[in-house]
Peptidase (Inconstantimicrobium porci), 195 residues
Amino acid sequence: MMKKMALLSIIMVISMGVAGCNNSAVPNDNNQTTNPGTTNSQSSNETGAIAIEEAKDIALNDAKLTRDNVTFIKAEKELDNGVEKYDIEFYSGNTEYNYEINAANGKIMEYDHDIKDFDIKNNQNSNNTAKITLEEAKNIAIKHANLLGEKVTFTKAERDLEDGVEVYELEFLYGNTKYDYEINATDGKIIGYTH
């Protein structure tokens, strides 16, 4: 008797789901004939989630780039503190872009871009806001850690844009100890560090 009730309940739930899908399909058909480009985002927004291709487009639009001039290196869905997000990474020229996009609503949660193989010293007259050089940032970190510069080995030293603020991300070794520093590129203040 219990099995029959469970089976009947399952059939009713499936029937209601199918009926619900059929009712929502009629208005979407009208949208598809007028503007097929927006139908996918409208239908996915109705379900409260976006597709990975939409997440890529959101990142590209924010970076003011098109698919023609980028190479995607990562596009995957992740769960971060109970929030589903897309982690999107791509290159355009010598710049790497990283985006985290909320999978439910398409909002950009976090982004940054890194310029690879870029010499900051040779580009001091460009339109950047950095007031301190990479070497100055390294010296700030070494001094803060109370280390001797000649015994430090840098494993990462790059300028990044985080939440609209230019920072230097530094990683270095001193003996067997690893140090990580994030330094504001405008004023040289230490934003964060670990060792």
About this structure: DSSP finds four helices and eight strands in the chain. Residues 18-46, 118-127 have pLDDT under 50 and may be disordered. The CA atoms of residues 154 and 172 lie 4 Å apart. The two ends are 64 Å apart (CA to CA).
